[in-house]
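User: quick one, fold this
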Amino acid sequence: MFGVLNKNFLTGLLIVVFLALAPLVLTTHWIIILTEIIIMSLYAMSFNLLFGYTGLLSFGQAGFFGAGAYFSALTLAHFTSSFWVCVAVGVIGTALLAFVIGWFCVRLDEIYFAILTLGFGMMLFTLAHNWRSVTGGSDGLTILTLPVLTFSSYRLELFNPKIFYWLSLITVSLGIVVLRQVVNSPFGLLLTATRENSQRVSFVGQNVRTVRLVAFTIAGALAGMAGVLFGLFNRIASPEMLHWSFSGKAVLMTILGGSGVFLGPAVGTSIFFVLEHFITSYTTNWMIFLGAILIALVLLFPMGVLGTAASFISKQRGVMKHE
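Assistant:
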């Protein structure tokens, strides 16, 4: 057991070190793309906590993602220019929002839960789109001044793509560590048990609604953290970030990489954005070709790219042990 934990730790450490050194050799263009992949990976992984581990299909995850962006934009505009305060406001604000919405949603199962989350998500989208005096309406809230990080006499400007990349990597890594702790904890096992058979969980004395509500709140908070970074990355918080189609991106990236696999959504996100980048550089009809490729990938890898690869490796190890 400890050998597996040490192996996972070393693998994660190597990935972080590789990503930390990447900007030293990449062009600014690829640094920007990689920054977006890292941020969106956290967003997709927050959705996977609900879908892959708890068995809840949410079409409203974009509501918390966009809410995080708006919370940070409003904080910068009216209160403080501190980066960490923006992140804290975004995470706490979306956690409270997710708790309230989740209190209604977790009472239902399956398609009814999905439709209810879709309804709440579109309510948030409409609120952001129509409340022009606060949210800027369809134009969104432009972030004119990015927060500045100061360490003693050092001053780090987030307008520098490398600085923002490293800061995003640190913030997302912290979010992933929290998510890893949740998944590997006894509570994580309870989430999996709820996904497999919620009735049995209730029979042993656990409150299924409470378990789902906690998972819903954590997922919302992490989506909000990703939304804060995405808003600062694009210099704007816009209603499109709360639209149901943006929730669809999380669903697609999770299924593409492998739902229920911890890093599956991150792999799916990387594949999606790299394919999108290459296809758009050759044709304006990129959605047709991207859609065809994604359909082929889903058919070839029914458990997602990482999920299918992990399953294949485990089967091969089983065959070798029997031999």
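User: anything notable?
Assistant: The CA atoms of residues 75 and 85 lie 8 Å apart.
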